[in-house]
Write a structure and sequence with these properties.
Distance between the termini: 34 Å
Largest sheet: 22 strands, antiparallel, barrel
Number of helices: 8
Strand content: over 45%
Radius of gyration: 28 Å
Number of strands: 48
Structural class: mainly beta
């Protein structure tokens, strides 16, 4: 039924797209019969099949052969081949984030769309993390750098990953592949292509992967960050004549994996940790960190706080990172040459469902958790339809394209985040150990209090009752929160290339996008202690003597707005927006081998809703006091991200040498930033202030640093130069080089939205600094040598690639404890291949030199001690906050056998 639903409209109206030209990267054996030259790669970055060297855009094209040599099975491995791209993942594989030129979206909140959009066979994938899965056999990957505000299904403010799979052909053939590696890694892959007559061909690709985890949880004696997945893609190609082509694709991915563990950052990893991970002795001193005492006394092995890059985890007993992901869909692409023009229809339906349990505090103490029961999930159901009409006129002086796009997406997010079974004692001990009550610290006593002297005057009994109430917050929180969002968007666009002269082209593109999002949420919560604390202690919040302790008790008892006051409550909202975006490009070819171009473009990424109840209001006040949850629902909205880009470039292609250079500047307004502050996620749209704030955006006050609305301008600027080159000095030797210098920085004076509201104090390190995960310099290099071995028809394979990455900060709040030093990653592969590459045996290694580094460092949830000297700025902007990190993959190696028929 699904097949019919998608294929029928396309077949009935017979709308079509010119069949994407094949990338012409032949295998090495074909090259051996030719003089040294670079293969022409054909891309569809401008909605047409064009030779890469003739496209006046910054595009990296990665061929099938390059993907195979580097061992790429998902978009992460593209890092080694595209210097402007960085792909990383955090608390879940679904939270993967891609960045181009230092710009990307942190993936922990599905309400934020991706700055780097992912398309597979012309179909938009709802979030870039969906690309962190097996892809089957790929023809090529196009990395389009910079805002894409005219073509493709969805606008993208930073760039696009356009993945094109291998389509059926009318020759019988296939391949099988088997790999075994360390960590008991097994990968089986294969494809078969079958002609089903003279006009129909079919193809099936399948992959199975299993691998032990990179981490070991000693508490529960299990591995974490393992692999257990399979992927199937089936295709039908119908070509009744040279003018009509219909391609139907159905795919299914299943993952049943345990992900994603994290370790503590210690001072052997980052010297800015100092003595944050040390026991304080006495507990009120600054010789260590009082929160470490609390963790130790509640069962945390101290070894976990001093393990460097060791991958041993101490997960709370009974907690799990188990998760199941299903991703499936079907699409129909119809290409019809109607005479003088080509019609294109791409119709698709996608269904993505990913759930993940977690020990959310990443420690042995049971503070926070999400049960792996299917109720911590995100589900996307998306229907999309794209139409394009493209042709030429005025004697081929104008190459025109018009089109339309429609998408309807239902997003459902369920959350079951609960305080753990030790939360109450942890929270009370955190308060007692970190202030004037430290002398009463007793982790084995009720309320963590060894005694209860009359320290609070007439309010003493109420305050101690508050400690007892908080002490009882164990295994409380969300019973089930359900967020639903429907996104309906449509767009009309045109993209036209005017051949002004034989060597001058002017490209003009315009797009109108209309976006409407409907939101509703229903909450379930059994934390009655929050209501009790707010009722009994709320009046003390403004009392000079009692405000601190009252705020600590209420804040920890109601953190993230986890309150039974929300139990059974529903909220709803709606937002609409429309934008014009577009591009203008002037290109000039002084010779057949050289192209120069300059471009201007405007990009856009939709606004939306922060799917997190913590953003509704401060946890210190009740919902009743602000008029109920519906009265503050507007606090969940955030504005669309807008980017204006200027780029100048040159491309040279002749014989064995291809080289491209691009210089760019991109200015972002309403830059959508998602940051975890140690307790909750903060979503702000970052803008700059054209007048000086005199440092008011760099202090710890939320009341300072506002800017007049008329003075608000761009908040993020990415400026730099990219160089990519490929050289074939001999017919069996190829070298690829890439360099990106990208100065991606925040403006010196920042505000938190387009109205000029003050920046959140948790983001006070941002003004004037580089963005997170935005190294200034990245250099990539690869070399492949495939010499003939005598006259037997055999050939060898010697391949190596590397990526040098400059220093950068992995945390979106830019705390120095999250800095990552520069590093080099090297992959290698050697092997022997049979005549015509009918078979091959290869030995390979990724991260050959076993370089340890962090993908992302973050504030360890709730695990922060009190702030006192020396735990103050600039070395300790987080006070006595502990930090954790998601480590990158260690060295892996193995053997692969391939057979083609």
């Amino acid at each position: 039924m699904m097949l019919a639903a998608v294929a029928a409209p396309a077949l009935v109206i017979a709308l079509a797209v010119p069949a994407h030209a094949q990338g012409t990267a032949p295998d090495a054996s074909a090259q051996d019969d030719q003089a040294p030259s670079n293969d022409e790669i054909v891309v569809t970055a401008q909605g047409r099949a064009q030779v890469l060297a003739d496209v006046p855009l910054a595009v990296s094209a990665v061929s099938e052969q390059q993907l195979s040599l580097t061992g790429a099975s998902d978009i992460r491995q593209l890092n080694q081949l595209a210097p402007s791209l960085l792909v990383s993942s955090t608390g879940s594989e679904a939270n993967g984030s891609a960045r181009i030129r230092g710009i990307g979206t942190v993936g922990d909140n599905p309400g934020l769309e991706s700055s780097v959009a992912v398309f597979i066979d012309g179909v938009y994938r709802s979030r870039s993390g969906i690309g962190l899965s097996e892809l089957g056999e790929i023809e090529r990957v196009e990395v389009l750098r910079g805002p894409q505000g005219t073509l493709f299904g969805r606008n993208a403010s930073a760039g696009i990953l356009n993945i094109v799979s291998k389509k059926p052909s009318f020759e019988f053939g296939g391949n099988v592949e088997a790999t075994y590696g360390n960590y008991d890694y097994i990968r089986l892959a294969g494809a078969v292509n079958v002609p089903l007559g003279e006009t129909v061909a079919g193809r099936v690709d399948a992959t199975f992967v299993r691998r032990d985890g990179f981490y070991h949880d000693v508490t529960n004696d299990t591995d974490i960050n393992d692999r257990n997945r399979y992927f199937v893609r089936a295709q039908l190609l119908f070509e009744p004549n040279s003018d009509l082509s219909v391609r139907i694709i159905g795919d299914y991915t299943h993952r049943d994996e345990t992900c994603c563990g994290a370790t503590f950052v210690d001072n052997s990893v980052n010297p800015y940790i100092g003595n944050l991970n040390e026991v304080a002795s006495p507990i009120s001193s600054t010789t260590g960190n009082n929160i470490v005492n609390v963790l130790r006394d509640l069962g945390q092995p101290l070894a976990a706080l001093h393990q460097g890059y060791d991958r041993t985890l101490y997960v709370s007993k009974g907690r799990s990172y188990d998760g199941v992901t299903e991703d499936k869909g079907i699409s129909a692409e119809v290409d019809w040459n109607i005479g003088g023009a080509n019609l294109t229809s791409i119709t698709a339906y996608r269904d993505y469902d990913s759930d993940q349990g977690s020990d959310t505090d990443y420690s042995a103490v049971d503070i926070l958790y999400r049960k792996a029961d299917g109720n911590s999930a995100r589900r996307f159901k998306t229907f999309s339809q794209e139409l394009r009409l493209q042709g030429t006129t005025f004697g081929d002086k104008l190459d025109w394209l018009v089109g339309a796009y429609y998408a309807n997406e239902d997003l459902t997010v369920t959350d079951n985040l609960r305080f753990g079974t030790q939360y109450g004692r942890f929270a009370t001990c955190r308060i007692v150990s970190g202030g004037g009550l430290a002398a009463l610290y007793s982790p084995t006593s009720a309320g963590c209090l060894a005694a209860r002297p009359a320290l609070f005057g007439a309010a003493t009994a109420l305050v101690y009752n508050g400690f007892d109430t908080l002490d009882g917050v164990n295994d409380k929180g969300s019973t089930l929160d359900v967020y639903k969002q429907n996104s309906r968007n449509y767009a009309f666009f045109t993209h036209n290339i005017f051949h002004v002269t034989s060597n001058v082209d002017l490209t003009v593109g315009v797009r109108y996008t209309n976006e409407r999002k409907k939101f509703n949420a229903t909450f379930g919560n059994d934390n009655t202690a929050c209501v009790a604390l707010q009722n009994s202690l709320g009046s003390f919040l403004t009392n000079a003597q009692l405000g601190a302790v009252a705020g600590g008790l209420i804040g920890l008892g109601c953190q993230g707005n986890a309150t039974s006051e929300l139990n059974g409550v529903s909220i709803h909202d709606q937002r609409s927006e429309h934008k014009f975006t577009g591009t203008g490009i002037l290109s000039f070819k002084p010779t057949d081998d050289l192209m120069l171009y300059g471009s201007w473009s405007r990009g856009y990424k939709a606004g939306g809703f922060n799917l997190d109840r913590s953003a509704l209001k401060s946890p210190l006040v009740s919902f009743a006091s602000v008029g109920g949850a519906q009265a503050v629902v507007k606090n969940l909205q955030f504005d669309p991200e807008i980017v204006t880009s200027i780029e100048f470039g040159a491309k040279y292609s002749r014989g064995p040498l291809n080289i491209s250079v691009a210089a760019f500047q991109e200015d972002f307004r309403n830059f959508q930033l998602n940051t975890f502050n140690g307790s909750v996620f903060i979503v702000q749209t970052i803008n700059g202030c054209t007048s000086s704030l005199n440092g008011a955006d760099r202090d710890t006050s939320a009341a300072t640093g506002a800017c007049a609305a008329g003075d608000v301008g761009w908040g993020v600027r990415s400026r730099g130069v990219e160089v990519e080159a490929s050289l074939v000095p001999a017919r069996d030797f190829r070298v690829n080089l890439g360099l990106t210098y990208s100065n991606t920085r925040y403006r010196d004076d920042l505000v938190g939205n387009k109205s000029g509201a003050a920046l959140d104090p948790a983001l006070r390190k941002l003004p004037g600094d580089n963005l997170s995960n935005a190294p200034e310099v990245v250099v990539t290099a690869s070399a492949a040598w495939t010499p003939e071995l005598g006259s037997s028809g055999l050939s060898g394979l010697f391949y190596v690639d590397s990526r040098l990455t400059d220093d950068y900060n992995t945390g979106s709040d830019l705390f120095p404890q999250k800095e990552q030093d520069s590093y080099v990653l090297v992959n290698g592969r050697i092997g022997i291949r049979g005549p015509d590459q009918k078979w091959a045996v290869e030995f390979w290694a990724q991260n050959l030199f076993n370089k340890d580094y962090a993908q992302v460092a973050f504030n360890t949830p709730f695990q922060a001690g009190t702030t006192a000297a020396p735990f103050t700025d600039p070395q300790y902007p987080g006070g006595r906050q502990l930090f954790s990190q998601y480590l990158a993959e260690p060295r892996t190696y193995g053997i692969t056998g391939r057979f083609r028929f």
